[in-house]
What does this fold into?
Amino acid sequence: MRRETGIIKESAGYRTFRVVNAVALVLVCVVTLYPFINLVAKAFSSEGYIAAGEVNLIPRGFNIDTFRVVMNDGTFWTNYGNTFLYTIVGTVIAMAITTTYAYALSKPYLKGRTFFVGIAVFTMFFGGGLIPNYILIANYLGWRNSIWAVVVPGALSVFNLLVMKSFFENFPEELEEAAAIDGLTTYGIFFRIVLPLSKAVLATMTLFYAVSIWNSWFNAFLFLDDKSLFPVTVYLRNLIAAATGVQEAIGGESAQVASNIQAVTMLLTVLPIICLYPFIQRYFVSGVMLGSVKG
It folds into this structure.
């Protein structure tokens, strides 16, 4: 770009860059949105059109009977409620551990700081393995068929911890010093000063944890035997893995029903996360720390 007599004139190279950039972003949007739009189209289409491969972006043979079948299934709603419970409890536990751990590690005067950071980073490269984890959680802790087997093992993401630690390290020390002069304790500074001014990173980490827990299924599949405790992701997994069983459950209908009912269940599963994004997105644009301290 070059400036002429107070007017910014775009160069040919910059215009080419903008065109290429726009085309690339459109292609990314198409690749990202097509599977979801196709899923919605299948959810509202008749089984015959799905079997014939005629459903792409627009529903064919509009059909909502499968929604009635799924929504009349008490097990689906029980598992759906379990997912909400696991997500809420797991996110609260994860955020409590991550924020306190990251805030402590962000202080250079913390004794053993390097050791505690090393412990966290070590887990990114080495794990105990599936069998030792199963023995620990199921036998020694006795968490089999318990909510804790679902929400506790993944309660701390080291990546999220390091991101939040970096954020707290850049937190203005003047604010904390001023609060300490006013008589606030360390806990008071953390809860009344640091957290309220960290809404951007807190919202981001909360979303990361919530989406991860909402989509997880392996721990529940591994440690839960009671179907009434399953999250909806295990319900969906069983639906996809045992299509013939689903056909029998709905009265021996044609094989195409399995594909349609899977699409309906997946659509109902992702809706809460899709509805949550617009309320969190504004925190991704800019942080609330900008301009809080004048140099």
About this structure: The chain has two domains: 2-65, 68-285. The first strand starts at residue 2 and ends at 4. Residues 68-285 form a domain with the MetI-like fold fold (CATH 1.10.3720.10). The longest helix spans residues 12-43.
